[in-house]
Amino acid sequence: MIENITFKQVDKALTLKAKTFIMQECYSNYSTRITTKQYKVLALKLDKLIKDKNNAFFVALNEKDEIVGSISISAYDNRIEVLKKYYKNENLAEIGRCYILKKYRRYKIASKLFNLATLFALKKNYQKLYLHTHYFLDGGFSFWKKMGFEITYEEKGIWETIHMQKLIPAQPYEYKNLSTSYMEY
Description:
Blueprint: E1 6-9, H1 15-30, H2 36-51, E2 56-61, E3 67-75, E4 92-100, H3 109-123, E5 128-134, H4 140-146, E6 150-154, E7 161-167
Parallel strand pairs: 4-5
Antiparallel strand pairs: 1-2, 2-3, 3-4, 5-7, 6-7
Helix pairs in contact: 1-2
């Protein structure tokens, strides 16, 4: 199955398909925990993320050219109040929207998407990666621990939010099985 997966950075031609995938996966994972208004804000944020050259959005496509996975990387916007004491004037990138369709999990697709995001971070001279996940998301926390992220702060309550970070290595990882067209970073 993995041998038929290709990886691409979202461009104008892939924008609608990528937004549709993200919105569907977001709803699948969060359902009514997020309000209709919040979904509208997310859709606008995705537009900005995809258009801004300082950010990147990567997708994995199957042999039918259907998106089966995604990840984003963007400059952290300092929007989370409890984290302001942790991240002051840092060159920090945020990893987000990492979704893999259930049928395609456990094939290292998320790892390859994360490698692309890390390579982009190196190109943009980010020094640290930030993300947050939730304990109720299937496999999210354990995956990010395997990727080398450490807990910065945990929030209790209905969201069970875990804020995590990782220093970006000075040397890029070795990227295997990715075609050269995605190595332009």
